[in-house]
Amino acid sequence: MQARKMGLAGLVAVLLATGGAMAGTYQLMAVQGAMVCGVSPSGSAMVGMTSDVNGNGWLWNVGTVSTFKLPGTSYVCLCGINDSGQIAGYGNYPGAGPGFSAGGQVGFTTSISNFGTTTPLNSPTPDSLAFGINNAGTALGSYFHFDNVCHGLISYPNGTYGTPTYPGSWQTMVSGMNSTGLTVGYYVDSGRKPHAWIRDTTGTFTSLDVGPLGTEAHGINDLGSIVGEEEDAVGQFHGFVRDPSGNVETVDFPGAVTTVVTGITSTGEIVGWCSMPDGTAEGFYSVPEPATLSLLALGGLAILRRRSGQALRRGSGLILRRRKSA
Fold first, then answer.
1. pLDDT tens digit string along 2-35?
2. Greatest CA separation found in the chain?
3. Is the CB of residue 100 less than 8 Å from the CB of residue 126?
4. pLDDT for 151-181, tens place per residue?
5. What's the rounded Cα separation, in Å, for the pair 190 and 62?
6. Cα 234 to Cα 2, 187, 204, 251, distances in angstroms
7. 51: Cβ–Cβ under 8 A, 6 or more apart, which residues?
8. Strands 300-307 and 12-13, sheet pairing
9. Main-chain phi, psi angles of 44, to 5 degrees
């Protein structure tokens, strides 16, 4: 499911920055042909990649959009950003790249202050991916060993790394870590089915299945709310938000074929993308209702799309269904 984030056409990133959704006070920002891959805990910055032939990584930081691409890559994806402006991502090399000769990915960190200047992840091999970074500067992702299997990776800012592996799994990916040390990600079993997991500070894994055909966790905030995607019994993909008590909100954008939630802020705003029946896809950023509502009582969102050079605004609401996860 992670690979679906790489070739989407027509994505539009959206920011609803201030005010409650019911009040209709929005600041909207459209990044033409972009995909939203991560948001900072404070919600002040978003990152992603463009879906056009250029495949640039992009950063939205308090109203300013910046892009970059590494030489020799077919695309660069920026997947996570923290409140200090540190960014985690990876570049895809179709041919020879740093440390290998037959193609692969290289995970890295960069920052707002030195945007485009990258530092490789601390990893057993150069072929790696970075999916997120927490406020301590710890990058999360995976690396490919010489056995061609994907292993979990935690790249610490002190130059060391950890390689958490879900017991008995075929592959393990790490996607997020909050300030308390709780880590989330997903593993793939021998039948090639993905399962979300959460790992506590003692290193104990707990599987978190939401969808019967597959579940992936893409982020966690300091409250312990987890976001991701799940596949239902008929192969339909839905986003989800799971609160610390295990209650799950299934997130569906109205009329969309697929909805995926990729990140969550400290106060519960979520970012993600959805694909539509006509083949187009849209990124979204939601804002919760005012404080009288709960964290997961997410309000409406607005989408800014560009067609024939015109910006069109239309309002909509996320469809949320609550159930208890396994």
1. 333 322 222 223 333 322 222 222 232 355 556 7
2. 56
3. yes
4. 999 999 999 999 999 998 989 999 999 999 9
5. 44
6. 19, 21, 32, 17
7. 7, 8, 9, 10, 11, 33, 34, 35, 281
8. unpaired
9. -85, -10
